Fold this protein.
Amino acid sequence: MAILEARALNKIYSVDHQKIIVLNDISLSVEPGEFLVVTGSSGSGKTTLLTLLSGLDKPTSGRVFIDQQDITGASEDDLAPLRNRMIGFVFQAFHLIPSMSALENIMFPAELQGLGDAEAKARQLLERVGLSGRADNLPSRLSGGEKQRVSLCRAMINDPKLIFADEPTGNLDSRNGRIVFSQLVEMKNEHGATLIVVTHNAEIASAADRVLVLKDGRLVP
Ligand SMILES: Nc1ncnc2c1ncn2[C@@H]1O[C@H](COP(=O)(O)OP(=O)(O)OP(=O)(O)O)[C@@H](O)[C@H]1O
Ligand SMILES: [Mg+2]
């Protein structure tokens, strides 16, 4: 049974009375534990697709199912806890909260979830990625690679079934990119999670179970 399913997704924006079709009839199904890469040129709709699949935004038409549950009609009040519990997100630009330390950033989704051992778990994750010594640093006092490893820990703290990563190594040099990517895959495998990564990186794509290519908002057959 699919952990994630999209049926006939369309996303249309209206700009200056013109309709822009950003995603055009996207259907896909992802099995539990799968590692899927989404690739395609700039503007082809990759980020838009991730935001729809993860429930961060709604399609103009079509449906998204997470773990058999139709999230398309769900209100933000219902979706936010589901996302927090089920989904981990890693962004190209890290999206860490600037006023919180590395440790606090990682703990935050667990605290929203009411997890009792948030701090212990966050410290364990920091140790896993070799950043125990940086727990109290604000994001402004971390390197790009360190920030991305912190955001990886934040994405993992609630043991998500689904991990989405939008160009997670795009802002990193190749060495740091490799470190972040190998830790991402390691954590995915450890938790038996499903991983969906947007990337231009051929090395990452070659490690995937399946590669989807978007072109002008359509999946290339
Ligand atoms: N809010 C919006 N209003 C209008 N058009 C939008 C909006 N968001 C995205 N678009 C358009 O949708 C298209 C796809 O954008 P998207 O960010 O999904 O592309 P992408 O494949 O992630 O590109 P990149 O590789 O550069 O990150 C682009 O042409 C973009 O201009
Ligand atoms: Mg993008």
